[in-house]
Amino acid sequence: MLNRQTPRRNFIRDGLATAVGVPVATLSGGGLPGAYAFSADRDFLDPQISAQIERERTWAFFRSFYDDKDGGNAADFLSHFVQSDQVVYQDAVLNINFFGYNQIAAALSGVINSVTAKFGAGKFSKIFHVTGDMRYGAVAEYVDLKNTFYSTNGITIQTLFDLDGGLVARDTDYWDSAELGLADIIGPADADGVAVPFGAVHPGGVPRSGPAPAPPGSVELARGVTGRLSASAEMLEAVLELHEALQAGSPSNIASLFTEDALYVNPLIHQGPVLYGNYNQTIQVRGRRLIRRLFETTGGSLPDCRGSKLLHVVGGPAGGGFEWKAGGAYRTTGLDRTGLVGCTALDFHDGKIQRMSVKFDTLQMDAQHSD
């Protein structure tokens, strides 16, 4: 019988060591918060085991990251960032940009302290999904709760991270303002009871605009802001293959890249008025067959398909994601009216996509700004 006092991770670690025939010491040690510092050389492991190890490491880091944010621990939260002038924080919907650790620390600690002072600990951010590789980069999905920034609803945010030495080098947020009620979208936004009121996202109903370049700005395809590689060769190859299929608009080719039980998430799947639920409710379909049917029906109108441009890739064999810029019919949309931008998170299983989650501001697709 398993001793009740045996830590779950120790039990899993010992079992894994036995399964692959390596010393327990190879899999143990200090390192990232809440995770084992697994050996960087994992060629002796089955690829799926290696991928699971990386998922555990990545989850551990970002649970710590968002737990510190949610708990109001500003100093601990900021300890997850590289202390460099090259570090970047961005919001791709509101056109917010902070450059350098000092600017980021001042801004984000102020926000965390304001939310915690108003609501107490545990009332800010709830993480629900992460995919990526601590050696390169990752994409996290979480909810900033109602009344942190907006009074009508919380917002489900997808954040792309460049990583350097196991710390955050770039943090760029993508979300859909249609999750909010009309008061927070077009105004007048109600600031009563809101910790850090941002005001209406698209005042008067006209899509927000800003100077070029809009976030993410000028980024290299597979290299982060501090010069480190942001994606493994396997991840880059997989994203290039997916993007080629999306560009071609071939439902069969797109569907062939997914597992049989894959989950596909896209805010455009939501039917109905604004103010839809957080945690990706009503915006997902399950299964390769339905994913193919969706692309047969809507592929030509999705902004990350025909005419889109691949901007930046992060992650490794287990998963990660990429940023893209819309083109074609949407080339005059987005903050700087050169095409709206978005982010896609990818989880892989045995070389195929097991989960694909797309995030962008659907209200930047306004017809008056597209062909």
Question: Nutshell version of this structure?
Answer:
The chain has nine helices and twelve strands.
Task: Describe the overall structure.
- This protein is of the alpha+beta class and 371 residues long.
- It has 9 helices and 12 strands.
- The chain starts with 7 loop residues before the first helix and ends in a 12-residue tail after the last strand.
- Mean pLDDT is 88; it is low at 1-40.
- Sketch the major β-sheet: 6 strands, mixed
Cα distance, first to last residue?
Answer: 66 Å
Shape: globular
Radius of gyration from the alpha-carbon trace, in angstroms: 21 Å
Overall SS class: alpha+beta
Q: How many strand units? A: 12
> What is the H/E order?
HHHHEEHEEEEHHHEEHEEEE
Low-confidence stretches: 1-40
Residue fraction in strands: 15-25%
Strand order of the largest sheet: 2-1-6-5-4-3
Question: Fraction of residues in helices?
Answer: 25-40%
Quote the average pLDDT: 88
Q: Tell me the quaternary state.
A: single chain
**DSSP helix count?**
9
